[in-house]
Design goal:
Elements lengths: L11 H14 L1 E4 L2 E4 L3 H12 L3 H8 L3 H13 L6 E5 L5 H10 L4 E6 L2 H8 L5 H6 L1 E4 L12 E7 L8 H11 E12 L5 H23 L4 H10 L4 H11 L1 E9 L4 E8 L2
Parallel strand pairs: 3-4, 3-6, 4-5, 6-7
Antiparallel strand pairs: 1-2, 7-9, 8-9
Length: 271
Amino acid sequence: MSFPKTVWLNERVQRARLISRLTREKLATYGFYQVPEHEKVQYVRRHFNSVAESYDMMNTILSFGIHYLWKRAAVRALKLKPGNRVLDVCGGTGDLAILAYRQVGQSGEVVLYDINRDMILAGKTQENHLAIRKRIRYIQGDIESMSFPDQSIDAVMVGFGIRNVTHMDSGFKELYRVLKPGGRLMCLEFSKPVSPVFRWLYDIYSFFIMPWLGQLIAGSRSAYIHLPETIRLFPLPDELAEMLEGIGFKDVTFSRLTNGIAVIHIGVKAK
């Protein structure tokens, strides 16, 4: 059996050259494919439309339930307080929003913001945590151009979604804009496993088992081929930290989870 080439863009020069060429040619990456940048949002929308109904179940199966531990750790790292106003961008079916609401309580507010209506509805209509879901505000929109006023949010979070944004730096700049001075950003995203042996096993799992399970359970093999491709093109933790610092975030830190499969970044908007 021949294994597919699993590309990890882990050299700064290689990534810089790719970004420069894509910018020059007005292209964007969609997994390992390159598409016109103005069309990427449609590709992403179709992708999540195809998996919306089975999204939570597939996340639990593919991660063996570990994604719940990652999300709890990520929200704890945000250090929310009762009464905070929290924005969950690329919020999907609401796992992070529910955890955040438990921290801010009825005196606070949690807004789930996502470009995909099917994903919002798939979460909003679930019966588990229904009382909390009814208290969350839902807004459909694009992270690159949000209607929130400047300095109106206490904390922003984005979980497993920023890598699908057409212009990631524009998305982070919008999050910085809406944050109040002293407000905190949390970004939870997939990354490159640290151990070479673990990485090899992860590659086999990602490119063979995940697509097979995607076809078997969700009826979409292509959606679960796209997933590992987007992960391998995403900036490494130190690169993402530098990007956030370049935008203006202070005290940027990151924590690796489960041998680096997932990483939590925290940043603070200067007062």
